[in-house]
Amino acid sequence: MSEFGGMEELLQDFLMESNDLLSDVDNKLVELEKRPDDKALLNDIFRGFHTIKGGAGFLNVTAMVTLCHRTENLFDKLRNSELSLSPEVMDVILSATGVVQDMFGTLGQGLMPQPCDPALLAALDAVLAGESPSSAQAAAPAPAPAPASAAPAPAPAQPAAAPADGGPDWNALHQSVTGSQPAAQAAPAPAAAPAPAPAPVAEVVAPAAVPAPVAAVPPPSPAKTQPTVAQAKAGGNVSGPQENTIRIDTVRLDMVLNLSGEIGLTKNRLTTLRTEILQGNHDTNTLRSLDESISQLDLLVGDLQNAVMKTRMQPIGRLFQKYPRLARDLARQLGKEVELVLSGEETELDKTMIEDLNDPLVHLVRNAVDHGCELPNERIAIGKKPQSTVQLTAEQVGDHILIEITDDGRGMNADSLRRKAIEKGLIDVETANSLDEKQCLQLIFLPGFSTKDQISSVSGRGVGMDVVRTNIQKLNGRIDISSVPGEGTRMSISLPLTLAILPVLVVRVCNQAFAVPLAMVREIITIDPDAIQEVSGKPTIVVRDEILPLKTLAGLLGWEPTQKPCFGVLMQSAEKAFILAIDSFIGRDDVVIKPLQNIRPKGVAGATLSGDGSVVLVLDMEDLLSANEAGGGTRMSELISI
């Protein structure tokens, strides 16, 4: 039961606005530390915090009002030059904003926040009195345990047993894909707190996921204050419950409405033409009008689909805005000087992908500060400026989004990574010696790999990068690394614009159509039987001096091939490239994947319907490859025996 009886809608409006305001305040505080004499910036911070305090007062959130009021007093003294801004003072301010953020989380669950820890209030009072914050022995308030969700998520249904012959039950699949499904089953989601009441259409808001509060003086341990990918792997909901609403520009909604109206007019025209044709009017003009109306409907539906997709697009800056403070807090804890430079914040990405990107990007930014950036004295000794620079950029490249995290730190040495992987027993010496420089850099994605000898609160357990790559691949993306020892490292993430529509290549094998993600396809080749060579008993083909393994799609599916494969699809999976042998091609298509209800054959991500109404399975290539490698893979004898 909410403690804000009759005011839930006002509470949600307050949280929507205040989350954005507080994120903006945090970023401006980081900027203020670089320009402490910028009065205009300080006034902006003061106004944002004052607005938050006013909303909290209207809702009678006494604990937040008390904390905001004392922090406001501190801002006022800074404005009037009665106090000077030092790193210690900034630590206290950021601790206060972190606790306010924690209170937002409590309010989002319909509960009244508990009073602020007296140690933080004492630290604020000490700063206001002109004393050192440490004299108040400020300590981080222990985060209150989050209240339990109203109801746990129902256990997922067990997959149906596969048919005896190993192939999928096509009747069951067709019924699963075409039958009406409840929304909750069509798009399963992890358990979360109850969704807030929806806002009006013109102001449909989803505040960006917010980081956990930062502790008070001294600088906090990031392991306790920021969500980590390792925690995500363990199943913890580190970013809070996902929001079910988004903020949409009314111009985009108007576009959807206009297109809907035009489609309605075209439908009326088609209805009239249908009546004329049923009455026996088959003259040339009627058929020409029918063709024109169908073509117009096709264009309008395409435009409507694009317009609806744009309503899901959100600027990635809403995700980026939390990272300057993250980098600042971690650098201060490690004794480093780091500046995080953002660019491309206006680049738009599907809202669902923005939420799922949070944990991987948090880890990559932390990794750049912890592993990449050197200490100031180390940088000076090698002729660099004492302050490191980490750049986080985003841009749209074709139908993909490219996100890059670049640092000017120590970089990575391929030989060192190779030796470390051998020491940890992750690869053998023979495999290590066969790796080129790019493949050595990919070793950091192995589970258990870490360049740190000592485990700290920030890193050293070897779980982060493995989960980063796994999460990126779940978004149908890929991550690449380039590094120069002594100069820095660049992590490049390529993602599709949206997950709602998946570009696929439709192929045929054993008289059955399958779809493979187009993002994995590099090129299409013709397979010449004389070009197939045996390496360690397995078939390979040389393509432009690159030796690539040949895998048959029939073999991956566990089927008996009906003919020798005629074509090959050169595919890239993570750092592995291979050729997928198939019988023929059907073409390229953009499909909407539907989940298979109560059935999940191995290696199948979902299904879609072709133009003739038949079921086309969308393959999960990573799943198929892992199962194939466990079973020994395609052998040369299998191709010869066809």
UniProtKB/TrEMBL annotation:
Q: Name one Pfam family in it.
A: H-kinase_dim
CheW-like domain boundaries: 501-630
EC class name: transferase
GO CC terms of this entry: cytoplasm
* GO BP annotations listed: chemotaxis
The reaction(s) catalysed by this protein are: ATP + protein L-histidine = ADP + protein N-phospho-L-histidine
Q: Look up the domain of life of the source.
A: Bacteria
Alphabetic keyword roster: Kinase, Phosphoprotein, Transferase, Two-component regulatory system
* E.C. number: 2.7.13.3
Q: Where is this region: Disordered?
A: 135-196
Q: Where is the HPt domain positioned along the sequence?
A: 3-107
Tell me which residues make up the Histidine kinase domain. 258-499
Composition bias type Low complexity, residue spans: 135-164
Q: Which residues carry this modification: Phosphohistidine?
A: H50
GO molecular function terms attached to this record: phosphorelay sensor kinase activity
Q: What is this protein's function per UniProt? A: Involved in the transmission of sensory signals from the chemoreceptors to the flagellar motors. CheA is autophosphorylated; it can transfer its phosphate group to either CheB or CheY.
Tell me what this protein is called. Chemotaxis protein CheA
Q: Which organism is it from?
A: Paludibacterium purpuratum
